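Hi R.,

Here's the chain you asked about this morning:
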Amino acid sequence: MKIALLTSGGDAPGMNSAVRAVVCSALHLDFEVVGVLRGYEGLIDWETIPLDMDAVRNINNSGGTVLYTSRSDRFLKEENRKKAAENLRSAGIDALVAIGGDGTLRGASLFIQEGINVICIPGTIDRDVACTEYTLGFDTAANTAMRAIDSIRDSSVSHGRCSVVEVMGRKRGYIALWAGMASSADAILIPETFDGNYDAVIDEIKKRHENGRNSYLVVVAEGVADAPALAGMIREKTGIESRVSVLGYIQRGGQPSAKDRMYGSLMGAFAVELLKQGKKNRIVAIKNDFLIDYDIDEALTISNNELDAFQYQLSLMLSQ
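And here is the predicted structure, written out as tokens:
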């Protein structure tokens, strides 16, 4: 068997672990592996490299992706998908393993229509692929955000400020919730629950200030609010000096945590196991800490995984 392997969409720590595991597992079965550079863009332009043991040695502890990545608008056009499919067939490729998030999964669903067997591995720091309880990169991103917020809090306490920290999470608030809870935030604003009532947040800060508190921490998911505007409102309505920190892309980078390295390895090896079993058009998933798989089109019909209500209620209690 000859496999093509790519990473697509936003990079996530743990992708390299998955790449390494796919290559090692495939070579163990005498499969051949071709690396496609720059995700679906590389499929269209046919930018490839051979992948052997030397190519993936010692990449387990590296962030980012050695195969590079992109978000491909061109792949949404049928003519370009047909070109990509023809590239694979001309190279004698039997299956494609694609590592990425929701956009990668949807691209794979379209590609199946061109007769290509695709196995997907969920890799996104947002943890927003509904069929799986975990996606590669989340643990590392949450820990990176937590460490940054801890450092910001030290300065905030020293100066008696309110710090508003924006983390990634346009549609899902897991990074904000976990990093905020771990950092003892006074308020955590996430897309799943925030109703736009900024006054309630500001009134609570004002109340604590009147009771003798001198520093405050608000963690905001990027999909919820304009963090600089929120800091301005807090400063205007309370008189408390307020500063903004936007963590940005540091959350995507850095050495993967043990969890992301382990899950990346397990998911990569399991993807090859599915190919060994002759399965087609599947996505690897985690349920109750076990590896399972879904049909790709079925996975897309699963509604977005709801935020754990107990976790959110606990965050409110701990922020008192």
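One quick note: The chain is about 45% helix and 20% strand.

Cheers,
M.
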